[in-house]
Design goal:
The protein is of the alpha/beta class. It is built from ten helices and seven strands. It binds uridine-5'-diphosphate and magnesium ion.
Length: about 325
Amino acid sequence: MDISVIVPLFNEDESLAELYAWIKRVMQENKFTYEVIFVDDGSTDRSWQVIEELQKENAEVKGIKFRRNYGKSPALYCGFEKAKGDVVITMDADLQDSPDEIPELRRMIVEDGYDLVSGWKMNRSQGDPLSKTIPTKLFNATARAVSGVKNLHDFNCGLKAYRRDVVKNIEVYGEMHRYIPYLAKNAGFSKIGEKKVHHQARKHGKSKFMGWNRFVNGYLDLLSLWFLDSFGLKPMHVFGFIGTLMFMIGFIAAAVVGGNKLYCLAAGVPARLVTDSPYFYLALTMMILGTQLFVAGFLGELISRNSQERNNYKIEKEL
Ligand code: UDP
Ligand code: MG
């Protein structure tokens, strides 16, 4: 099978039939063999009925229905598990992404050898308010800097294409769908490209991600990913190092304070109280915090030693 299209959706019944007809037309024009996996993320409208009706007439339609709303990332995760195509395309259900982009996205994977091609939403200014575009710019700049995937302008675009290996080797959870290129890079897929894509204003319904908390959550997710990537496998290297360093500084400070006191006593000069010296407080905090960091690193090691992930290396080839 050439292509699997995965469509996560939450209350999008008005768009589904039109979206499927459009995908089908593009696939037939290009003579691709394909499947379209609709993942219904706990919709409360008629979305699932629409999918069932489409399925009756088209063997290419597959569906997964969640019992409740889990979020876009879990929906993508289940779609990825099920996908059989050589190239996997993800696409939003709201008709903002155009299926006409599919052939070129596929060509970039198959012929140009990209592991992942991310869409870059053009002409979106008419559709989105300023309160959304400015934070989006900021978000993308941070994501670029932290992830080290320097050539992407638009991490959050729902329209992306993947080589099948990629989706089988990454685990999207929580709200990590915004950082799939970063996940892919961490799993060892480094050829990540970008294609400018057309982007329409939403035809039906409202955006499912509203307000500022998406950006707060987005940054926290990025932070956790960066943490996992940098020292998830070796927590002791970081915490142990900083902890030891702090403890040593504290220890030296304590030695200075204590040495000074002893010297004064021995020489018979009037010595000031140990607690009057700033070094005393430095010694106190540094030694306590240093020990705590060290213990944190050690606990991290114990946890990662027990985790099922610990020897989960991504093997590309074996002879
Ligand atoms: N979506 C989903 N589960 C959710 C929220 C959204 O599956 O909990 C789907 C939604 O139906 C759409 C896609 O994710 O197909 C992108 O959502 P939306 O268009 O609301 O996001 P925006 O375009 O505003 O970033
Ligand atoms: Mg949308």
